[in-house]
Design a protein that fits this description.
Length: about 550
């Protein structure tokens, strides 16, 4: 997709068109973001919505500054490090922790939308909800992806009566092509449109969420109305790493996305990445990713609770030393965390937190030159499987480590009251000479990091345009097993990677990359063919 003035790329045509209408009417990227997010919460409810959180990067054309806003969920004040442990102090099974009230953190998405609109919006706040309200009342056609996911998760979606009645009416999963209405969601949106987010954090909606979470049979949570009233969006310093003369800017802690993408690219900056047909390039991408994930497991967490060596982790000297480990013809036999420079003790143990793929990503450039990259999530598909006010509640607290210590050594990403769980979300803006040239991000759990790093390499090193870059078959390595995307040309690398010493697994790798490239002659955009999104521009 090519455009001269503005562009929006997101995971569903209804959401993209809602944002496009706002941009065409002269709205800013922040205005369009609200329209896109509230629509995604209706038509792609399994991935994001009012019951979740998000991280946002904003490039301001007037000031030339990049701002990052943290709308991540917070743990309840009553949460303890043993939240996801059984009576013997052992970690719960993952889905035992996910489904129910225990996994729900205070949602940050509504507050983030309002904060972005307050800072950078120009359109009427209430008007940004109108299209989603209308579609919720009149009904939307269930997409094949939503129908397939409901059918595949029917047992878990049945644990909550409200969730079951919406997704499995009369005990039958909703089907593609079916008209689905959501009057409760329209009511929630009307409350936000008319009163801002106050009803969500200090009013009726907060009360309903707390009541639902605390009264789940067998898996009650500990959220309180006080937790909601204390929630705030945090402005964080962006994390910017050097690569090929560009600045790759992302989200810092509590997300690991900006640091890990920056580390991967910072290591690769010491080598030529010849072509996507070169197995050596994939070997280095895979092992650079493994090295970054080793650092992520040990050091990255909510920096309001744990000192994080942010500057040290992306320092050029540190990454140059780490990059020397890649100077081999084979896969690395052992990968361990490094020792970045830091003025605090780094006596931390490694984390094993699971982060499964769901989530959604939005990229927008408006006619004023502002650029926005936001990754938004309720964590696992369908979150906690609890539904309130027409939207699903997150299970983001399962992004914490279920263990608090290992052999007496604390884990940085352990559960603590009020803390924000570590994330892999990696909304990214690549800068050149102080201006944005790429706006990109993806869903995909912890694979978000290699998805985004690979896509930036595809564009900057291999010269692929936006659509070709997001469509490029995936090869991703986080913890030692090299995941290769099934049914694609990437399968040609299975044998050579195996000969290099990698353990290789062929899987469906379901990213949702949305990318806008800003060039001298305008904007070009791409939407991931693995999902249902599009890019639109004018």
């Amino acid at each position: 997709v090519v455009a001269a003035e503005w562009m929006v790329a997101a995971a569903n045509p209804h959401a993209v068109k809602a944002g496009a209408d706002v941009l065409a009417a002269g709205g800013t990227a922040a205005d369009a973001l609200v329209a896109v997010q509230v629509m995604l919460g209706l038509v792609e409810p399994q991935s994001s919505g009012l019951g979740g959180g998000a991280f946002l990067l904003w490039y301001d054309a007037k000031t030339g500054q990049v701002t990052t806003l943290d709308g991540r969920e917070t743990a309840p004040l009553a949460a303890q490090p043993t939240l996801f442990q059984d009576e013997n102090g052992e970690p719960q099974k993952f889905y035992d922790a996910v489904v129910g009230g225990r996994s729900v953190g205070v949602p940050g998405a509504p507050a983030l939308m309002q904060e972005a609109h307050k800072r950078w919006g120009s359109a009427s706040w209430a008007g940004l909800f109108s299209r989603a309200i209308t579609l919720a009342e009149e009904g939307f056609v269930v997409s094949p992806r939503l129908a397939d996911m409901v059918r595949g998760d029917a047992d878990r979606l049945s644990i909550d009566a409200t969730t079951r009645e919406y997704f499995l009416p009369q005990g039958r999963a909703i089907e593609k092509g079916q008209l689905l209405k959501n009057a409760s969601y329209a009511e929630s949106l009307r409350a936000l449109a008319g009163n801002g987010v106050a009803p969500f954090y200090t009013g009726r909606i907060a009360k309903e969420i707390v009541e639902k979470v605390r009264n789940v049979p067998n898996a009650p949570g500990v959220l309180s109305e006080v937790d909601f009233s204390l929630y705030s969006v945090r402005a964080r310093d962006p994390v910017c790493a050097a690569y090929r003369g560009y600045e790759v800017c992302g989200m810092g802690p509590p997300s690991s996305g900006g640091l890990s993408v920056g580390q991967i690219l910072g290591m690769l900056d010491n080598y030529d990445m010849l072509s996507p047909e070169d197995v050596t390039a994939w070997r280095m991408l895979g092992d650079a990713s493994r090295l970054s994930f080793a650092d992520r497991a040990r050091y990255m967490a909510d920096s309001d609770y744990v000192p994080v060596p942010t500057a040290g982790l992306i320092a050029r000297d540190y990454l140059r030393e780490r990059a020397k480990l890649l100077n081999t013809g084979n896969a690395l036999e052992n990968v361990e965390a490094g020792m970045p420079e830091f003025d605090h003790s780094l006596n931390l143990s490694d984390d094993e937190a699971i982060e499964l793929p769901s989530t959604s990503h939005i990229s927008i450039v408006d006619s004023y030159g502002n650029a926005l990259s936001m990754t938004t999530s309720i964590e696992n598909a369908f979150g906690s499987r609890l539904m309130v006010g027409g939207f699903l509640l997150n299970n983001q607290l399962t992004d914490f480590s279920f263990r608090s210590h290992r052999d007496g050594v604390p884990i940085a990403n352990r559960v603590e009251p009020g803390k924000r769980p570590r994330s892999s979300m990696a909304p990214t803006i690549v800068m050149k000479n102080g201006k944005p040239v790429v706006v990109v991000g993806s869903p995909g759990g912890s694979r978000i990091i290699p998805y985004v790093a690979k896509t930036i390499v595809a564009h900057l090193d291999w010269g692929l345009d936006a659509q070709a870059a997001v469509s490029l078959p995936h090869l991703a390595n986080r913890f030692g097993i090299y995941d290769v995307e099934e049914g694609t040309s990437a399968e040609a690398f299975v044998e050579p990677l195996t000969k290099m010493g990698f353990e290789v697994s062929v899987n469906a790798l379901n990213s949702g990359l949305h990318m806008i490239v800003v060039g001298d002659e305008g904007l070009t955009g791409g939407a991931d063919p693995r999902r249902e999104g599009i890019a639109l521009g004018e």
